[in-house]
Amino acid sequence: MTRAMTIAGALAFFLSAAFVVRAETGSTTAELDAFWAEVARTVSAGDFSGYAATYHPDAILVSEAKSTSYPIASALSGWEQGFLDTRAGNVVAKVEFRFTVRLHDQTTAHEVGIFHYSAVPVEGDATDQYVHFEALLVKKDGWKMMMEYQQSPATEDEWDAAGE
Q1: Neighbours of 73 (CB within 10 A)
Q2: Do residues 84 and 78 lie in contact, with contact meaning Cβ atoms separated by under 8 Å?
Q3: Structural domain count, the chain
Q4: Contact present, 107 and 138 (Cβ < 8 Å)
Q5: pLDDT in tens for each of the 164 residues of the chain?
Q6: Is 117 within 8 Å of 95 (Cβ atoms)?
Q7: Which CATH number characterizes residue 136's domain?
Q8: In which domain, by residue range, is 145 found?
Q9: Global pTM?
Q10: Which residues have CB under 8 Å from 52's CB, separation 6+?
């Protein structure tokens, strides 16, 4: 075997290994995109149990606005009425996500971005919020959020800059 053949073989191996890593990363990104689409679906449908299922049972909500952290179960109990109102047709709610950093392997993810939550009640004032957030996820029986860190309010300009 010539030296050129050995180098060519090594190069082919490394290029194929790089392709496999890239393919796995793309697959993971698609799975995470599907996770966030499911979160959005549950909010707009008022599907409280589906929304709660996107979190790991031991998940934590970190709230910069409230200067605290607490179990997601406590946060969910406070959010449940909004889901019930949405399901009953008393509110039209939706959430969208844009990401600025997406770090992951096949079983863990750290997602950074902005979410845009809006709720328009049949009666009363509309809610329209842009919030910087971070999420840590783990893949155990599907992707589950372990930590949601709601940071500072974001602006529409920051939302636009985050792209789609």
Answers
A1: 13
A2: no
A3: 1
A4: yes
A5: 444 433 333 333 333 333 333 334 569 999 999 999 999 999 999 999 999 999 999 999 999 999 999 999 999 999 999 999 999 999 999 999 999 999 999 999 999 999 999 999 999 899 999 999 999 999 999 999 999 999 999 999 999 999 87
A6: yes
A7: 3.10.450.50
A8: 3-161
A9: 0.82
A10: 76
User: In the sheet where 55-63 sits, what is the strand order?
Assistant: 68-71, 55-63, 143-153, 127-139, 108-121, 91-104
At residue 81, what is the residue type? Q
Rg (CA), the chain: 20
Rounded distance between C-alpha atoms, residue 76 and residue 88, angstroms: 18
84 touches 46 (CB < 8 A)? yes
For residues 105 and 129, the answer to whether their CB atoms sit within 8 Å is no
- Report the relative pairing of strands 91-104 and 143-153 from DSSP bridges: unpaired
